[in-house]
Amino acid sequence: MKKNVTIEAPAKINLTLDIKGKRADGYHELETVMHQINLVDHIHLQEAEKGVTCRSNSTLIPDDESNLAFQAAELMIEKFGITEGVNIFIEKNIPVGAGLAGGSTNAAAVLEGMNQLFALQVPSPRLQELGATLGSDVPFCLLQGTAVARGRGELLTPLTKGPRLELLLVKPDYQLSTAEVYRQFRMEKITKSPDTLAFLNAWGTEDIDGVCKYIINVLETVSIPMVPEIENIKQQICSLGAQNVLMSGSGPTVFGIFKTQQEARLAWESMKVRYQESFVVSSYR
Ligand code: C5P
Predict the structure, then answer these.
(1) How many CB atoms lie within 10 A of CB 176?
(2) Residues in the chain with pLDDT values less than 70
(3) What is the pTM for the complete model shown?
């Protein structure tokens, strides 16, 4: 019997996202609070004779080397001299091209899953280091929970305390390329930056009003002009009772923070009529 393992791959939202400048390597220097939510893909890994295959229940993601999960498997085989192969099946629930780290979390799950499947006992810091070579969000996806990410996104400070969030997520019928959003980003277009310290104080004391007050994402200056519907969705979710709303990552997904799951669900009843990709979710942990 071939061994197999199934790993949960949760999506993330960015509660704050600040850009400090452009780096010599072409990436942007970030300060962002990332938070995992219980919108989850399931990654099934099965030991194989040789090589990597990658299949999915979604037609929106590639099944070849261009899939980050595929690259993660090849990386593990190469780095740890694995002589067998692996068959990957991605049960996709997270919207694609949404600003929710769907690709990164799948790659992180493959790294973690192969570590288990082949009993490699690779320590977490080494796995995160490998993850960073695949994508800036992969180390956070391996760490899990909530964290401040700096540098390219790979320098992580975990936040252990914090409130549980009740959220409504709405994705307009567009996909945005993260690379394209960053390419179009201009520091001089920023009108307000997050006060990350104030956010962290509110977060650490579970002051939900403070948390809601300090959520800001500077990438909205790029993504909203590209997809004006983001602003429209923000206003709709606000008028349905959210304490505050924000775009996640490079977008275009918008999340609203609600006092209770029941309120989030009521708002979802209205939004789902127009937006198929709407979800009532909570913090993952
Ligand atoms: O690291 P990852 O491949 O996920 O990033 C996708 C794209 O987003 C990069 O090619 C880069 O253009 C941009 N990016 C950036 N600064 C970051 C993270 C990502 O410019 N800190």
Answers:
(1) 23
(2) none
(3) 0.98
